[in-house]
Description:
By secondary structure, this protein is of the alpha/beta class. It has 28 helices and 20 strands.
Amino acid sequence: MTAKPAAAAARATVYGYPRQGRNRELKKAIEGYWKGRVSADALRQTAADLRRATWQQLAEAGVHEVPTGDFSYYDHVLDTSVMVGALPERHRDAVRADALDGYFAMARGTQDVAPLEITKWFDTNYHYLVPELGPDTVFTADSAKQVAEFKEALALGHIPRPVLVGPVTYLLLAKAAPGVAADFEPLTLLDRLLPVYAEVLADLRAAGAEWVQLDEPALVQDRTPAELSATARAYRDLGGHTDRPKLLVASYFGRLGEALPVLAKAPVDGLALDFTETGAGNLDDLAAAGGLPGKRLVAGVVNGRNIWINDYEKSLATLGTLLGLAGQVDVSASCSLLHVPLDAKAERDIDPQIARGLAFAKQKTAEIVVLARGLTAGTDAITAELAANRADLAARASAAITRDPAVRARTAAITDADGRRSHPYAERTAAQRAHLRLPLLPTTTIGSFPQTSELRTARADLRTGRIDEAGYEERIKDEIREVLSFQEKAGIDVLVHGEPERNDMVQYFAEQLTGYLATQHGWVQSYGTRYVRPPVLAGDVSRPEPMTVRWTAYAQSLTDRPVKGMLTGPVTMLAWSFVRDDQPLGETARQVALALRDEVNDLEANGTSVIQVDEPALRETLPPRAADHAGYLEWATESFRLATAGVRPDTQIHTHMCYAEFGDIVQAIDDLDADVISLEAARSHMQVARELAAHGYPREAGPGVYDIHSPRIPSTEEAAALLRKGLEAIPAERLWVNPDCGLKTRGWPETRASLENLVAAARGIRAEL
Ligand code: GLN
Ligand code: ZN
């Protein structure tokens, strides 16, 4: 393969960068601010320092335009709501009183005012705050943050390119504000929103911006003709202003499909497209649309979602093809680097053969720069890099961890019967009722209890050798005893051990399964100041020993009430990890499922009658295009059944999922063949209960009545009101009472009060039935 030198120099750029800083300085500063330990000025200074360090690092690496405005104290979609003045009525006074505190109130809520709803950013593990709009929404431009960050970078000598959530995506991500009819379509506000965007763009132009990037990832999903024509209208309008900067419309996370010709024809100056596996088809579509003559194409050839090194030869081949299709071809990652950790070189404990194959944000930036150089100057200019890349790819492929013949033999021998429980649901539910003897509206929690600083200290002490295994075990057991005794006193029906031994619901298992690698510093933002450290699925998966049995059995030994065993399901074990890209996801899922099946069976054998297998990632992993749903859901539901179908009929299998919109996967949820499901519902006022009912979902369900993403304590009346709403959709015999999700991020005082209120609400309603 050879790439001819490009006519115009190809330039390297990125759409966004991890925000937290090398030592998670931003998280610490923001949480310090919330606790009153850090002043607003100190927080702003930390943020400015981090932005400066990021830009400088990008520029030094050889990035041409640096992104600005992608930085956020909490979430860039919330920042967009601020930018267009779409603040919920209930927060306006707080924002007026103090912009920063008001901002955090919208994100987290206060004791009196509910926050915005939180949901997944496309199929990533990043969460955004859902804009609340209605027919009365009045947009007003507030370009202050964008302009300030642009000027900040400019003053530091960079070429900044402000990055904004595009108007179409912004509206498509929004939902009807409370009190507005649920079928209200935010996209109907487009004509009102466009002048506000035009004003922000003009302000950025006036500040000196040559290019502005408008992110439209919503266009890689299936869009209706009306939505496509709204897109055309939006960019005809924004492109038509004379006082505007050049517009780069960025798409990512997939194939643009029918939106591609729409954007290609729009009077904008450039497009950014995903040319990795997820964007397969973009290249052909672009050629079919006649390319982008005279315009700028930013080619996302470096995968911004995984942590593996790029295959330079493959990328250069793609880039070479693209040269003929646009006036200017620049190189980037497939999406913002927000979704990968900062620096793979910080990892010291990973097998060197695999470590050579790792690329985090910093390495991906370097790859982008090398590829831009190769595209500009020809492959001769990067011979050394190409040779090193080939060697690194080969090292990873031949690493011992990647293939375990025993695992492969086992997945090859899977039969249909392995994925089917011995009895149908209707018979199982009767057996479980007789066995468990639970009251109507049984109360339970989702698994974790507050992860106190004592617990984190205990884990750190174990790591550093200040306490030994036995000492650690004692501390965990103390905690389990406390959690159990609280739950018994509070009157909860199905208890949990509280997951005190778990650092994270995926990492904990990954550390015990072969095939997974842990990182030391691989933090990525989940929401706000919450960061997770996804493990790396690098090889074939198996379970050498039981993982949870001793803790669950210990908890069960302390009580006569049923203690629920807690596992993380196969889809989530994949979704919240960095997955291998050298075999189909379904194959990896089957490997994980069989490992979990061993654990489920061992739990049952050790006296556990209720086992919850969490699959919060089932919905978020759904591919963006409907045409790909069936293929995904087939392996996803199969792997759940493989993990859970080996138990007796009177053993009750629960599953749990977070995040509000389930309407399109109720059939898949049913196909899991679980006995009980708990779902997030408090912020969306039990919407999921109605969705389940609308689809005739026949099983037991616990739509959450306590929003655990906020420190707010729901009152008994509030929980009872939600339960009554739940009862309108789900009959009492099938309704469970539980929080939205695990309590690990909460403090004990609010957890205690909230769960007591929740039990009181359940008892109150039971008495009415
Ligand atoms: N069992 C887990 C917990 O309670 C579930 C967490 C989740 O769904 N995100 O923490
Ligand atoms: Zn959850």
